[in-house]
Amino acid sequence: MYALKLHHARRQARPRGSTRRRLSLAAWIALAPMAATVVFAYLGTMLWTAHVSLTFSRSLPSNTFAGVTQYVRLFQNDRWIGSLQNIVIYGVCFIAACLVLGILLAIFIDQHVVAEGALRTVFLYPYAMSFVATGLVWQWILNPELGVQSVLHHLGFTNARFDWIVSQRFAIYTLVIATVWQASGLVMALMLAGLRGIDDEIWKAARLDGIPRWRVYASIVVPMLRTSLSTAFVLLFVMVVKLYDAVVAMTQGGPGTASEVPAKFIMDYLFNRANIGLASAASIVLLATVLAILAPFFYARSRAALKGARQ
Known about the structure:
The structure is a single chain. Helix content is about 75%, strand content about 0%. It is flat and about 75 Å long. It has helices at about 1-15, 15-55, 70-75, 80-110, 115-125, 130-140, 150-155, 170-195, 200-210, 215-220, 225-240, 245-250, 260-270, 275-310.
């Protein structure tokens, strides 16, 4: 008797066909705004940009077909080539420094230090600031007349020089310093979350075997943080591609074009030089580069996840 009542209750709990259809329709209605945003705001603008890049558009869009003329002009532009070289240098230094510093900060906090909550807040706080604010602050710090160099001179070190921000050779590295200060806290938070998920049995086994703590981190713990590391890499890579605000705030792309980056090149040709055809071609090249780098990364990550699920 109890089994019959339970079976009847389960049948009543199951949504009927019409109810299921209504729930499905409600779900599609809820997703419609986001789907429309993706289709029109993202895919639509990408297709429109690709179309404009194949025309002789200048101040206004034109339908005069130009083929790959804009792309040829783009790669004959020394300023564009220089911006690509700068973004590669910046990207390698920025991502490497953020990962190393973020991991070290996470390991430091993972030792259950005093005032752990306050330290987490201090390290993560710079990430809450805008890149414009960060750029302005570091512009003052690195200004030879006001910042570190001036302080050293007032302390008696009259021969000390720290004028990277006005040096064509080192200007790009000032952007690395400023943005690493801002973004390393994010990496620290991601790594710390991963570290707190490590099984305590690993540490117990390491202590029994007499393995030094640094060796456990280097050989066992950090390799186990592959998911956190890959997430941090993707977020940092997106920051590299989007780099614009800090450049404008700190160096304006100078001195000369020493700190020019693709995003600033695109914005200048789009609004200041009234050449939307060339700016669109640069945007498509940048998009293709991002897809060429991230697509194999996500493919390998999904394959590894499927392989792990099967095992």
